[in-house]
Structures are given as C-alpha cells and as structure tokens.
Write a structure and sequence with these properties.
The complex is a heterodimer. Chain A is an all-alpha fold. Chain A is built from two helices and no strands. Chain A has helices at residues 2-9, 14-44. By secondary structure, chain B is an alpha+beta fold. Chain B has one domain: Sortase, Chain: A, CATH 2.40.260.10. Helices cover 21% and strands 24% of the residues of chain B. Chain B is built from four helices and eight strands. Chain B has helices at 3-7, 26-65, 128-132, 253-256, and strands spanning 105-110, 119-124, 137-139, 150-155, 176-180, 184-196, 218-226, 233-246. An eight-stranded mixed barrel of chain B has the order 1-2-3-4-7-8-6-5. In chain B, strand 7 (218-226) and strand 8 (233-246) form a beta hairpin. The radius of gyration of chain B is 29 Å and the shape is elongated. In chain B, 36% of the residues are buried. The chains are: A mainly alpha, B alpha+beta.
Chain lengths: 54, 260
Amino acid sequence: MISTMIWNALPGPAVLRVLLLLLMLAAVVFVLFEYVFPWASEYFAIQETTVEEP
Amino acid sequence: MTTDTRVRDHADVPAPARPPQRRLSVVGILGELFIAAGVLIALFVVWQLFYTDVQGERVQREAVEETEWVQPAIVAADIVETIPDELKMRDTDPPEMRYPDFAEKLAALMVPRWGEDYTKMIYEGVTRADVLDPLGIGHYPDTALPGQTGNFAISAHRTTYGKPFVDIDQLAVGDALIVQTGDAWFVYTVESWDIVTPQDVQVIAPMPGEPGVEADDRYITLTTCHPKFSAAERWVVHGRLDYWAPTGNGVPEELLVAAP
C-alpha cells in the first residue's frame, strides 16, 4: 500500500513522521495552488469572459 | 527462536503466512489512487472558488494602492472639489495617449453602482493567463482607448479571480462608468445591456453591434461571463461617453453621488 510505504519510509518517531507528512502536504498544496491549478484551469474553460472570433 | 527452526526443512513445514497488510494489493493501491484523485479534485474546487478570490482581491487592491495617479474613490463629499462644468469636454478629443504594451496598466475603472469604493485597474490584453486571471480587468487589443471615438471594450471575470464584474447585472441604464487615466477623467453612461453568444464579436466593434461601420461616437463596452460560473454566454453592457475632463480639477460629481 502506498500509504504504508510512505509511512515506513519516513524516519523517526510517530510524532516526527506526522509533522513531516503535514509539511509535505503543505508543500504539495502550495505547488498545486500556485502553479498546477492556474495552468490546468486554462484548459477547462469553465468560465470565459471575452468574445472572440470562432 | 531456536536453532531448530532455522535448520528446519522448508519443504516439510510451510512458512508462516505474512501479515496480510504487508502484501501488495492491486485493489488497495487502486483505492488509494482514487482517494488521492478525489482529494485533488476537492482541492481544485477550493482553489477555484475560494483561493483565486483571496489572491485576486489582494492583487487588485494593491494595484490601485500603488498607482499614484488614481484619485481615491472614498472621499468625503463636502471636502472634495468636483469638476466644474466648463471643464467638461464633450466635442473635443482627449489628450493623445500612447498605446499601452501588453499587460500594461492603462486606466482605472470606478463604478458608483458597485459601491463608492469600487476602483479597479484596467490592463492591456484579454488573455486569461496573463491578464484576466492574475490582474483583473483587460482591454481588448486594438479597440479604442478611453475617450477615443470608437469602442473602449473591456472584459473581466464575473466569478472567482477577485470577480471585478460580479455585479454586472446590477448596472442600470443611466449609471455612470468612470474611467480615469493619468491625464483625464472619462465619464460614460450605461445605455443598454445584452446577453450574447461567445462568438458575437460585433459587440466590441467600433460601432457596437454594427461591424464594419465607422464609429460616430465614443463608446464603452463591458463583457463578462453568463450565466455565473459558465462559459456558455456573455453578459454585455454598452455605454456612451458623457464628457471627459483633465485631471487635477476635482473629481466627477458622479463619483460622489450614491447610486440611487
């Protein structure tokens, strides 16, 4: 299982592992919010505001 | 463990079963991937509906604060000078303005109907990646500049990304749309609104609605999405220039009059 593999790969006692996991999650969310989602939303065209030639 | 166990013949005695949670399970991993995908989509929704507004509103507010030629929109009516009638130009051309570079700040938009503190900057270009998402209001390239004969056409998000045009459906005929550049004030009046398809480019033609016809006046056009959170149609508002005036002689009285 992926979750077990990640947990076992982390060093230290359980408290440290939880802290490391939270740090990793924050980093992943940051990259998603700042780079991945702005880029991806261009291709969804959920909302467009301009008129343009077809 | 005793020495006996280690020398035991493996053919005779089956090895003890490994604990089930240590086994690689295809279904288990697939399940984890699905959970991850669900979390990813939920995060995208949070980002789109919540975070882009947080970011957009901050960026747009800071852009107004750092532009020194923007007149503060919140001003006490009794201490502020309004533009005298003799400075309201109706038939002359406004001062020549250099055509802005792509994504360059070119003017401020103030709409009393949207609140007395509504001030947002307008930038050149209408691409989402460079202007509409990160900066706010965009000016359609090669349409008229503020106050010029033709159609000053601008576009912005109605939802998310700071939603500059969120209250476009509140605009009524006769409402003031005030544009300010470093040199002049331009006071437009709303004349009509419409809901069109995304391909209806005639709404930003120099003569709104009549492509190929030379403009006979100074127009403004706002476009945004419709319905909210959709790319299906466009909400369009047209206006016409009432007057322009050089800056430095007070603010337009329309800014101080609360919209009825």
